[in-house]
Specification:
Order of helices and strands: HHHHHHH
Number of helices: 7
Distance between the termini: 52 Å
Mean pLDDT: 91
Largest sheet: none
Low-confidence stretches: none
Length: 188
């Protein structure tokens, strides 16, 4: 598992998703994968927290930042602790420096997008916001095997960790105090 993914299914999915020979697909994957880069997600985290502060939701703003930044740290600790190598049988279409499991792009996009959807969307729009968050995180994560830099199981692991981390922290935070989520519509 550490060298060859989780087995034949992981390898077959990686080969099926790999986009090196499909210029349009490769270009789309290169564009979408950038959304999951730290250079995008970190400023978006700060902007989201600032927006919540402006809207007078300081607890939600602090929680958004805490979930995102602590989650990022936990992803890196997992990579270091697990030590899984990236796929080597396909050319990497983007530069990579870290280990493979879990996919930080999948995990960190899930953490930020889902946190923001659950904390910032008014109740009547929350289901749609969560659907958009999941779709966006799915799009970011799927680009990683398309670019040959992650096993599909790395991406699934990233999504799973991101969702579990976000939901667990929000559940604990709500038990520790007043409701965190915006209940009024943005026009109020």
């Amino acid at each position: 598992m550490m060298v060859g993914g989780t087995g034949p299914l992981d390898l077959a999915l990686l080969r099926a998703l790999y986009s090196a020979n499909e210029p349009a697909l490769r270009s789309a994957a290169l564009l979408v994968t950038n959304i999951g880069e730290w250079q995008v997600l970190v400023p978006v985290t700060f902007a989201g927290a600032a927006w919540l502060l402006i809207r007078r939701h300081p607890r939600a703003a602090l929680l958004l930042a805490a979930i995102a930044f602590l989650g990022r740290a936990l992803v890196e600790l997992q990579k270091w602790g697990i030590g899984r190598l990236r796929p080597e049988n396909l050319k990497h279409l983007v530069p990579v420096k870290s280990l493979s499991f879990p996919s930080a792009h999948a995990a960190n996009s899930m953490i930020l997008f889902l946190s923001f959807a659950l904390l910032a969307a008014p109740k009547r729009h929350r289901a749609a916001a969560v659907a958009v968050a999941l779709a966006a995180s799915f799009a970011v994560g799927i680009t990683r095997p398309m670019l040959g830099v992650h096993w599909p199981s790395d991406v699934v692991g990233g999504w799973a960790f991101g969702a579990l981390w976000t939901l667990a922290v929000l559940w604990l935070a709500e038990r520790a105090g007043s409701p965190l989520r915006i209940e009024e519509s943005p026009s109020n």
